[in-house]
Amino acid sequence: MLRRRVRLTIGEWRIEDLEVAFDVVFTADAEGNTASFEIYNLSRAKIVEAEALSRETPIDFECGYGDTLNLVYRGLLDFVETDQRSEDVVVRFVGRAGLNARAMATQFNQSFAAGTPVRQVLALLVQTLGIGAGNLPELQAEFNMGGTGRAFTNGAAFSGPAWDSLSEMLSQAGYTVSIVNEELVVLALDGSLKNTAILLSPQTGMIGTPSLALETGDGASTKLLRASTIMIPGLTPGRQVSVESKFVNGLFRVTRSTYRGAWQAGEFGVDIEARRL
After folding, report:
1. pLDDT of residue 181
2. Which of 93, 139, 159, 211 is deepest in the core (most CB within 10 A)?
3. In the chain, which ranges are E strands?
4. Would the pTM count as exceeding 0.85?
5. How far from chain centre, in Å, is Cα 248?
């Protein structure tokens, strides 16, 4: 078995391959994305440095096997707390995803002439927010803003928070929007990202037997897949997965994923929920 690797970087503060337990949850709603990291028995100097970290300091968490480290989570520090548990001193870092307070308050007050392409305004909004465009560029040719179409035929004026304007525009076009690892994720309702599906099978790292259950909500029924894997990067909401197993097969769209584990022992992998496409 390959040795496990972990690296947690918060601003200039970093630890690597120490006793850390983590739990990172991604949902289709950016506000639901959370991360918790518990590090055991740091030196006193490291604890003092950790407790001095400011709220909203950027966080990167990477993990993997052998010589490979993959980015699992990118977000912002919410708070740090230190706890004595029997013989162990545990420092817990809690992160959150999405925009920092400054970005959330960023205003977008601009007017655009008749004929301005919708894609141009969307690009300016993303630039104003200071986040990655994610999969937005590959979808822009499809945008149709209802009666507006692909351009603002009568011009447009915006006043207020940039995030509100971006969310409203995409919602009007029939898309949902969230932020995963500081990148925009734009999905058509019940849609998925257009990248290549990740193959999940016993040979590629699926653990145990996936389950498929009927879930009813909003007057409709859908089949919900639950599966567990080894530490595979990129299993975040919107991603397509192709499942190959004895009882469950087919193409699914991830709606929720949890990366959890510990550096030395115990679980070290991903639990996903997904809907059949």
Report:
1. 83
2. 93
3. 4-10, 13-16, 20-27, 34-40, 58-65, 70-85, 88-96, 110-112, 116-117, 151-152, 156-158, 175-180, 183-188, 198-200, 206-217, 220-230, 240-244, 249-262, 268-276
4. no
5. 26
